Amino acid sequence: MLSLGKIDHIHICVSDASKAIAWYQRVLGLHPDPRYRPLQDEPHAVTMLANPSGTVRFAVSQSETANELPGSVAFVVGGQDFLDWIDRLAGERVASRDGVTIARDSVRDHHFFCSISFVDPFGNPFEIVSYDHTWLAGKLKLAQTSA
Questions:
Q1: Which of 11, 43, 101, 126 is deepest in the core (most CB within 10 A)?
Q2: Which domain holds residue 130?
């Protein structure tokens, strides 16, 4: 039976990313995870913060409308389950944040993991990620670009 793995990270939208990151470092002991540095350069810049053991992760992004945007919860699964989740979401006609029905071409390639983002019927955002990137890149025929 298809099931979700553990929570991978919680996405938090803030009005001042630098201030938020400093607060999470000082108060919660979360520090930028260097493996996710390339995400800071994407159009929707994200800084991934983690505790020393990597068991708690926040993806922090800045938005002028941070108080109006809900954060999201991301679950992690293996590669085959990732494909199965895409098919299940597509079969249920679940929409992406942009209102487009989820399909295999909805996958975002982050060069060492893949993700699929969607919303529930009430607009709450979720994400499913898999770190089986090499296997998924072959199955989904993702473009092989240098990261």
A1: 11
A2: 77-140
